[in-house]
Specification:
Number of strands: 4
Radius of gyration: 12 Å
Mean pLDDT: 87
Strand content: 25-35%
Number of helices: 2
Distance between the termini: 32 Å
Low-confidence stretches: none
Shape: flat
Helix content: 25-40%
Structural class: alpha+beta
Length: 77
């Protein structure tokens, strides 16, 4: 088990941005299920966009945070 974090990389018209939620999921399966729902919503709202969604474990998430400029889901920037 462990904690997993949902990270989204989304590109529209060649401009890409990463967003994530700081709230961890308690299992990979829970994160994966949310990623499927999120992908469906994004595909409907932004049909011409491209991207990927990841479920990262704690170590991977720390590496992500240290290597990117991120936007946190649910906060104003």
């Amino acid at each position: 088990m462990g904690e997993y974090f949902l990270v989204i990389i989304m590109c529209i018209a060649g401009a890409c941005q990463s967003i994530h939620s700081e709230e961890p999921y308690t299992s990979y399966e829970a994160c994966y299920q949310q990623s499927q729902i999120t992908a469906e919503v994004f595909n409907k709202q932004y049909p011409s966009s491209q991207g990927q969604i990841f479920c990262l474990d704690g170590l991977q998430y720390e590496m992500y945070l240290n290597s990117t400029e991120e936007k946190i889901i649910g906060t104003e920037s």
